[in-house]
Amino acid sequence: MTQALENKPLETNNLAGAVETSDRVASHLHPEGSTNVDDHPVPTGREEVWRFTPLKRLRGLHTDAPFGPGALDVDIAAAEGVTVREVAAGDPVIGSSGYLPADRITARAWQAAGGATVIDIADEAVVEGATVITHTGTGSDVAGAGHVIIRAGKFAKATVVLRFAGSATVADVVEIIAGDGAQLTVVSVQDWADDAVHHSAQHASVGRDAEVRHIAVSFGGLVRLSASVDYAAPGGSAELLGVYFADAGQHLEHRLFVDHNQPKTRSNVSYKGALQGKGAHTVWIGDVLIRKVAEGIETYEENRNLLLTDGAQADSVPNLEIETGEIEGAGHASTTGRFDDQQLFYLRSRGIPEDEARRLVVHAFFAEIIRRIGVPEVEDQLLAAVEAELAAHLKSITTTTES
């Protein structure tokens, strides 16, 4: 029999007892967080963490753009065994992941949300199917703010999907808490209209011997998504996967931070992106901090980008900060390039037309990550979205050739 988690932070994820506050700010790339908006200066674009972001296109999210109701329609389809509830500001479950906003936009969203939606998976619950939270932009003139907290109890197993679509200006916070031995998958799909602006901070706290898989999928609009992970106890494992497809004029920015603050923890980061059209811009920042206490850890991160046309730009910056040599392994890789001519030649030599050969290459490029989600319905929907992007790309090539 399952029961809802108590309305309190999970004991296994009380980071205050695991890592001192002064130790949590050892990385110069990640300053001490605060929920107080005034503690975060207005970014100018000269700061390292903002230098790639087109601030003028954020519609004032980083300054004083008003938040208000009506920007999003939210629908929640909870799987059997999952409890959904709303909590008001000040409830102790808010912030129970140990996360604090690291930038002004996130602090503004934290305050403007005025509470949070809590998704609870009870101890030892094995949830079939996915819980899906759909956010649909209404085209409102005011910005929307949101706060979602996903908590998996000890030895629980579940999948939660966050969907964003439509036209909106949004800033939100997602806290993910995996209790000891839990297996939790969180998929965040940003399938926005071209005029949407979305700033999202998503943080996961991984319990003892727990496994967290976080998958980010971004198509359309201007997206700046920061995904971070730390560990509440030894033995935890985190896998951060991502795919993105940027069209002309779109900006898709993904910032990853894995904080190995416990020994014998593991992380694996793999993001893949494709770009097409003039002004298409993607940014991937992968930061991994291995603290002095984190002996016996293993980590690897990679980012691969495929440029489909001229005029697109992909920035990729992997970083490793290592404070101890007593580790199992640490590495990173980053590549950006065009189609593999040998792959195309191989396919065309077997009678496959060039446009179909290009489609197959890109499809395989993304499918390797999408098929690791583990929810067939979600995988099929995402692959269909990739196919739609590819169809638009091939159509543009045909039009250009004919003209």
TrEMBL record:
GO terms for biological process: iron-sulfur cluster assembly. Pfam families: SUFBD_core. InterPro entries: Fe-S_cluster_assembly_SufBD, SUF_FeS_clus_asmbl_SufBD_core, SUF_FeS_clus_asmbl_SufBD_sf, SUF_FeS_clus_asmbl_SufD. SUPFAM superfamilies: Stabilizer of iron transporter SufD (SSF101960). Residues 24-45 are annotated as: Disordered. Belongs to the iron-sulfur cluster assembly SufBD family. This is Fe-S cluster assembly protein SufD. It comes from Naumannella cuiyingiana.
